[in-house]
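Dear Dr. V.,

Thank you for agreeing to look over these. As mentioned in my earlier message, I'm a first-year student in the group and I'm still getting used to reading structure tokens, so any feedback on how I've presented them would be very welcome. I ran two proteins. I've put each sequence directly above its structure. The first is here:
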Amino acid sequence: MKHSVFKQTACFIVFFTMMILIFYWICSVVITMPEAEPMTAVTKHVYVKNSDGNQAVGQTKSIINDDKEHAVSIHYPITGISEIDRVIEQEVYNKIEEFENKKIGYQALEPDVSSSIWIDYESYIKGDIISVVFYTEENFSALAHPLECVDTLVFEITSAKQLSLGDIFKSDDFSILAELTKEQFAENLDVKSQMDTELFLNGTEPTEQNYQHFALKEDGLAVYFEKYQIFPGYFGIQSVTIPYDSLSGHLNIDLSNAVLEAVQTTALPKGELTEPPTATIDKQKPMVALTFDDGPHYTVTPRILDILQKNNARATFFVLGNRVDNFPNIIQREYSQGHEIGSHSFSHPQITTLTSEEIEYQFTETEHRIQQYVPYTTKLIRPPYGQITQSLKEVLQKTFVLWSIDTQDWKTRDKDAIVSEVLNNVKDGDTISVNVLGSKDGDIMLMHDMYSTTADACEELIPALIERGYQLVTVSELLNAKEITPVAGSVYSRVLSTGNAAS
């Protein structure tokens, strides 16, 4: 009896299991799964640039410290997607912390060690992918050579997920990537002789670790190799770009713009280029020149331009070349309002550490970037940290501008302190002819259009200077009014009616 009941129970279980399996088989064949949520439902907002090249996405955020002994020049993008921006900012702050720890270590050995850190970026957008490439250079006086590195961050827009190389390839076999990388380097005669070395062979092995620094550019997958990873250090950081066609069938991502088009983008607006107004300057009235370094900045510079326009005043902007492509509309506005654009170098290095070729690049590249957006040739140079060397004069053959009043705005970040520094030190302008009392005007004031407190100060400072009887002019207008024709290699920190450069 028990055996019969057991047999019946077993048969029922088998029958029931078979029915479930049949049911699921029917569902898999007959039932159509619902379609994925349409792309129009995507609500991410991305700041997309108008300019081409290596700055395709984001608004630039900067950290600048002009301390000559411990200089900081850091730039990174704000994409508009908070989840992504948190990761980017954390990456930057981690780098700052690492730099500070290194500095403390070197100071323990050499208390008066000087240092600097420079970080800049490239940004790309391809399909649903945002890529950010960071270049970092650290200098310590205790070391003979700078420390350089490259890092990349890659994100999917819709999910804000950070992607690894394994996420974009269909398998973890990167042999095709290694093969194509070697083919690219083989075409470069400068490095071909190094391809048989153990360093190169180990550094290009098809492992995810070797190819961890990558970016999805418009024309292909870019791979970056650290200094010393594949070649001796003097070759620096190396990169290759593999066309997407060569990787067909190996990638696990959609390279079309279907997703991007569904994402709500906020393009950075282009400025309207108009001819600058003709300046009207009364040579009998005192005048001073406001100058701003390290810009343009996406919020601070427009605020300062608004204040200058409201007060019919002009200024000189010494721009960084690596920021020009980020904000062409601001460069165009500076030009159209009649302000002077000078060069502050490309990446704010210490001039004393550069070769003649490197010096030339810093300023010719900045000139090239500016001329992409305005019909303008810079006449004036303000080297970073005010460092003017004989080599600099020989290479550039330009006019150099320093300052007579340093507002210390980068240091105090205090509106009232900035205003007081100027008003307490500017030579007392009055309506007496400058031909008689030329020493009463001609000051050149140093500020930075990187800090909101500087813009706050300008709201009070500019009207106050005008009320004291000053005309706010560009440096070249100041020189012209004093009937000074600058010559190559001349340096001006204050312009007197006698044509002297006070220093």
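The second protein is here, in the same arrangement:
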Amino acid sequence: MENIIRIRQSQMPIHSIADFIEHNSSVSKGVKEACFVRLIGTNAALASDICQLESKMARRMSNEPDFIYNRILRLPVLSSPSDIAYYGSCYEAWVLGKKEYVSSRAIADNTVYNRLLGGALKQVAGMYATGRPPVSESMERNFIAKMLFWHDSLLCGVLSHWDEQLTAKLVLCDLVLEQQYLFACLLALLGYDVLLLQCIADISEQQDARGMSQKIVLGEFGNPGLLPFDPQKLMMPEERYVFPGQIQAPAGGSRTAAEAPRPVTIKLPPHPGRSAKQQGTKNTGPSRSAAVTIPPRPGRAARQAAAPAVSKAAAEKSFEELAQLASSVVMIAIHGANGDIIGTGSGIMVGKDGYILTNNHVACGGRYYSVRIEDDETVYTTDELIKYHSRLDLAILRIDQRLKPLPIYQGKAPLVRGQKVVAIGSPLGLFNSVSDGIISGFRKIDGVDMIQFTAPTSHGSSGGAVLNMSGQVIGISTAGFDAGQNINLAMGYECISRFISGFV
């Protein structure tokens, strides 16, 4: 069995990007010291410092075969069903190997590295489990799958070889979510020098308390204005993956141009027919009767777009028949770092493998989620945020339960103003409420086509279904305007169909 080098956190104080550049992470007596620094905020000199950093890195890569550099602008989303299955199998192999070894696509034939990776995964899995309710096997599987996917995606293109003398400096931008930060911890535990540019926001105090990264307070949060990153200029191999645009949590603020509404405080009622004793048996989060403060939904300024041509819907159902489709609509409670419920929302079942479509503003910022299904006593807990997109305000969660998915409208007949619609969601925590209305207009909000409708909605409706009279999903409730009566917006079926492609 090969000896594995020991990785330890560098004790050298880092006060600037120049210090990060000069840090030497070579191996001495079987020990490599990794530098893990978090630069908080921006100033006028940041772009210049980054340019200087990459100029020096280019020279080092030209002269040193055992040196690599990469600036990582975003982490990819683990969304492909084949990738999910593959990294799920890697997790199983990791567990069978007593969490000491894992095979990496980035360096498949290096036993020493893969053993080092297996041990580092064990450490970050321990950090992930600290301070939260008991981590289920599915939660741990999802976490490890993400770590391995990010590792392989970001290093396959640059890490052509590995040995103990290899030096790597990795710069990552704005990793705020817990799992993203733990990925940066993983890289440091593998012996890479890591610099986090936290230009927009910083990690939570709880994450900072882990003591993994040094702090450099540079300036105020704001637009970093960083130079675009071109690996070719650093003589690096072409990147293997094409990643989507950087995901950021939607900004808060008012739903209209007027003053932002105050949060609504409610009490979630117990699940119908469920005793208080039963409620505490399967829910790892707080009691369902706990007080919940639901933050206002984000809004957008409406702009008029051209209305589509008039057509007539076919195969209409009765309201009673449409109400039965609520069995495929779920209520989502969002839990914060301490396990408290910080908000509620709705979601719809898509596909056949427990995938739930909801709004990104519902899912973002949550540490984990609990999901309630109609006529099901179980409260399903998950942290599997599979896919998300801030501009479209859509996200996909997954639970270990399969339901009949709701059909998505395919646009064979254009939607029209005045057309009847039915909305199903959980406004103010009122589980699976059904309301009716009409399509009142078609709007383009921040460059995205939206449907304006009158079916009453409230906080907690976000992510719920907007159906035509044939029972097809024409939109997902996304936002509303407090200043107007029954002025609500839904993300349309075209964006939904593209977003869930591969999950249906």
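From my reading of the second output: Residues 439 and 453 are 4 Å apart (CA to CA). Residues 111-129 form the longest helix (19 residues). Does that match how you would interpret it?

Kind regards,
E.
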